[in-house]
Structure formats: structure tokens, C-alpha cells
Amino acid sequence: MRGEKTNMKDIVHICCSDSGGGTLKQAIKGGWIEGKKVISFVDDLSNGPIKWIDDADSRIEWCKQTLALYGEFEDIAECVKSDYREFHEEINKIGNEEIYIWYARNGKEMCGLRYILSLLEDKISQIKTIDVSEKTYNVNQINSFTPRCMGEISPKRFKDLLPIIRLMDEEHYLQLMESWKKLKDENSLLRIPNDTDVISVSEDYFDNFILQYTEPSFRKCARTVGEVLGRSEIPSTDDYIFWRILQLVKNEKIIYRGNLGVMREMDIKI
Fold first, then answer.
1. Helix axes 221-231, 238-250, angle to 10 degrees
2. 45: CB partners within 8 A, 6+ apart
3. CB-CB contact of 261 with 70 (8 Å)
4. Long-range pairs, 47-51, Cβ under 8 A, ≥24
5. Alpha-helical segments (H) within 128-214
6. Are 37 and 168 in contact (CB under 8 A)?
């Protein structure tokens, strides 16, 4: 119960976003869930090449191409490598603790789940997964919602998700690893959720949707990106949508003015 001092349970929580990791830490601090550590995996494996294990440069080059806020990192290559190095170090520190992996039904977190599990093959019996998209809040009310990402959940609501914890078994693990192998073999530039699975789709999957919400008169590119993300039933990221806008500019389907390549310094129209 919140406010009571208890021994911290030996649970390592893992999720696939910084925002999700932050709220998990707050949930532990507030006493809504138990745990001793939170590990966040930050890369978005729903887009870009994922055979990067054998060719890290291809993954790094993709990050350079799609990072909307250019100039924010002096050395993107080192940032990518250090993120993975630090994550692997944290994974390797896990001993006999219980492992809770949290995810929602979006491409980033579902691909992240598969990648994380590929690193934990020898700890299957310690793993529990929580699909937060199984839970709908405020059922039959006007403000009903089903989380599409970890960042949409407030810390105190994590306790409501504990009843949907799923114990990992070998059969389910092998299914997820087969899914991950298929995605890596396909090595598409975009992967999206399909119910509880993830599928590869063409890199231009969102293009028609982007054009639909691009105005015939100039407006800020960031506003178009925000509208596309807000209206799309398939969760994506601002970096990916912005990259597709740049491709549409290159293909002369979108007209721009301003500083090409900087989202908040560009105006666009069809």
C-alpha cells in the first residue's frame, strides 16, 4: 500500500521508451508497483534497417537521415553506439531477478520487445510481459481510452495493469523469436503493428495519408506532422513522418519554403 515502507522486490522493469521508463520509476517511487530497477531501450526498431548487428553503419546512417532535429547531436554514430552499449551492460547485470517487460501495441515497442527478448534467451523462466494495450480505461465513458504507448499511462495506473501480466513460456518465446527473425530477414524500412503481431510494409505506407493532411496553402511543417500523428490509427513517430515529407518534397509532390531539413523552419503545401 502506498506510504508503507516495504522491502523493494527484486524486479527489473524494462520498457522501450524514455517516457515509459520515467513513469515506471515514478510508479515505483510512489509505491504503486514494486521493483528495484528500470531499464529503457530507446532506439526505434520499427523503422530503418535492422540487420544492423552485422552492419552497424547502416543503422547509424539511417538515424542520420531521419533525425529531424539536425545539429542536436555532434556525433550521432557515437550516440547510437553508446545507447546500445549502455543498454547491453544493464541487461548483462541482470541476475536472478524477475523481469517485467512492458510494451504497447505500436511498432516501436513491439519491435523493441522482440529485440529485448532475443538478448534474454537464458532467462525465459524469469520473464513476464505486460501488454498495456490490453487495458481500456474509463470503459463506456466519453473519455474511454486504450493506451497506444507507455507514455500515455500515468504512474498510479500501472497497478491496474498487474492483473494482465503474462508469464513467458518457451512456446510463446519461440513464436516471438520467429516473428523477429522474419522481420530481420525482410529488413524493410517500416514495420507496423497488426493486432498482436508486427508486419513489414513499404516505406511509403504513410505517404497518401500525409498528402491528405497537407494543406493547399503554406503552413508550418510541424503542424502537418502533428496532425498526421494525431489522426493516424497506426502509431508512428515525428521523425519518420518528417522523413517521408522530405521524400515527398524530393519527388515534387509537396512544395516547401524555408530551411529544408529543419521541421520547425519549413512551411509546406501540396
1. 120
2. 108, 111, 112, 115, 191
3. yes
4. 47/107, 47/189, 47/190, 47/191, 47/237, 47/240, 48/189, 49/187, 49/189, 50/111, 50/183, 50/184, 50/187, 51/184, 51/187
5. 170-186, 207-212
6. no
Question: CA 97, 6, 167 angle in degrees (round to 5)?
Answer: 35
Closest among 30, 25, 27, 43 to 4, alpha carbons compared: 30
Q: Which helix (H) or strand (E) holds 57?
A: helix 56-66
Spatial strand order of the sheet with 266-269 comes to 219-220, 266-269, 255-258
Cβ atoms of residues 237 and 108 within 8 Å: yes
pTM higher than 0.85, yes or no?
Answer: yes
SS3 165: coil
What distance in Å separates the CA atoms of residue 114 and residue 184, rounded to the nearest whole number? 11
Beta-strand ranges (E) seen in the chain are 11-15, 37-40, 98-103, 127-131, 166-167, 190-194, 197-201, 219-220, 255-258, 266-269
Q: For residue 97, what is its C-alpha cell?
A: 531477478
Whole-number mean pLDDT of the chain? 87
**pLDDT, tens only, 20-39:** 999 999 999 999 999 989 99
Give every CB contact of residue 257 below 8 A, 6+ residues apart in sequence. Answer: 218, 266, 267
